[in-house]
């Protein structure tokens, strides 16, 4: 069996793939990519392993950044946060962390754990707990199975570390969000620590390698970027246009806002409205949804096919609006209660993008 690694050759592909599958969220990957690049140069490539490569008792560390993506662009981590989180967990559990895992597959959170894995000399698990990015801490698959996100370890670039043990995951979200806001709007964290055996049920397998394949396909280019993307994952093209207005506000550890996109080409005369809370939540036309969470709504550069994160959306950008089907776990009754349109305050139910545009 071929052993997969993340090295300097495919790290950019991972970062690119993460922007496509993030649904606009997870933060701009550039800072995490640079940190992972330096770590790989110093300590060598990071091995990617599946859950089946570990013993059931092995301890995994799901981790990433928490907070408003707009803040992460300037308030960068110092690089040692992963070690602080790992050492805290090892003291608490009395055994070593065996593997690092991105808790979401999006933006900076898909690549920053690569740096932490390289520094620690640990493999990266080829899985995550979202299959995309979501804005809140109860919006991870273990929550659907009644598993606790505690103990959660939060640390900032000053190496101030706080441990949370809460009564449930809703309280975890509230208390961690307040803490992150006090720390300046973003921080690094470990959530839902568990053994490999416990992770087998909630983990969405293969997401790291899938992001690499997506990035490599787009980077090879040639012709319509959508034709490249569909080779890796099914995608629905919702429209193309120019961003003519963008409104963003950062508060309470989130970036919220909307973008207006004026149709171009065959979509001339159409007007799309994209609404987001860290991640893209819904695309509307004439007040009617074209796609909603938990399907993955992504803006792609019309020329390159590169994904555009919410804090990177700018007036004048020419973009394609596309949607990918949600990982199936999020379209169950439990999943929709956690991340469906009504969970974000919309007064309509989820209908898959595939069914809407069949």
UniProtKB/TrEMBL annotation:
Where on the tree of life does the source sit, at the highest rank? Bacteria
Every copy of the S-Me-THD-like C-terminal domain together lies at 168-351
Domain (S-Me-THD N-terminal): residue spans on this chain: 11-165
Alphabetized Gene3D superfamilies for the sequence: CV3147-like domain
InterPro entries referenced in this protein's UniProt entry, alphabetically? S-Me-THD-like_C (IPR048350), S-Me-THD_N (IPR010318), S-Me-THD_N_sf (IPR027479)
Q: What is this protein called?
A: DUF917 domain-containing protein
Could you tell me which species this protein originates from?
Answer: Pseudonocardia asaccharolytica DSM 44247 = NBRC 16224
